[in-house]
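Minutes, project check-in
Item: structure for the 360-residue chain
Input as provided by the requester:
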Amino acid sequence: MSAARNPVRRDVRLPAEWEPHAATWITWPQNPCDWPGKFQPMPWAFAEIIRKIANAESGERVRVLVGSAAILHRASTQLKKAHVDLDRVDFFVLPTDRGWMRDCGPCFIEKNGPDGKTVAISGFGFDAWSKYPDFALDAAVPQAIAGLMGLDLEPVLHQGRLVTFEGGALDVNGCGTLLTTEECCLDPLVQVRNPGFTHADYEAVFAQSLGITNTIWLGGGIVGDDTHGHVDDFCRFVNATTMVLCQEQDPADPNQAILEENRERLESATLEDGARPEVVRLPMPAPLFFDGLRLPASYANFLITNAAVLVPTFNDASDRIALGILAEICDRPVVGIHAVDLVWGLGTIHCLTRQEPLQA
């Protein structure tokens, strides 16, 4: 854990996910390579997520990127069949490579100015997790959305270069504290986003681009995580002082040691005001495999919307336990979303979405 030793930009803030949303952004599935052999059910899985976000009680819109006019027509037809209220859905024709909106999409921030608070975009770079060669379309998404929505985009620069970073690599409490991992940010050999960066470099970036005063550094991410250590697969804030941390009970599972090492780190962690966070343990589902590959199945990849918490479920005995734990500590209804097919894309609900805060 480290408090920021850098000048903190006080006119910007990265709101917490449970704060009011104007909308949630998502990309309609269009690349079969993301779910090889399982692409056919993906539109219906997305339709269910969109239906739950765009319900009448939420006051929340869903903004959907589609790759072409033909895909727009197909998506709107499928959403209508799934009884989604299309009056609450905005479509934008914008081609993408993959469309994991949490990582390639805009990082919406709140800015304080002479005319009050406005929403802007903190423009991080994106390079497909420093793993895949095709990412030019995804990397252009934040700038394109800034133009579509008439929002300012502020490129995130450090030491004269654009900083590459993904939304799934961080989680915040909205009061100045940020969670991230050393595996994702600092590994010098594997999926290196920003070569040569240190803890201090990242903390300077967080302070200047997001208004972060306090960074909690966790260690490694869970097994099967294609991103190499995203925090949103195992540790998340649910309110300003409480976080959930996944727990693996089986000592033979490699996740057990990984998650316990992160628990030990959190024992000495403090929030931005020096208080200790409350850490609630969330179970892991039984290991899930497909075509010989272990998948990053985790209940921590939930999305907090205006009206509910949407939690991935895996036809597992721990589904009920995880939903019950989250229901006790969250301030809105908790809804399970079947994700056994979704997770073959190596991500689930949180990875696929990006919230846009409501402008004050």
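Outcome recorded: The first helix runs from residue 42 to 53.
No further action items on this chain.
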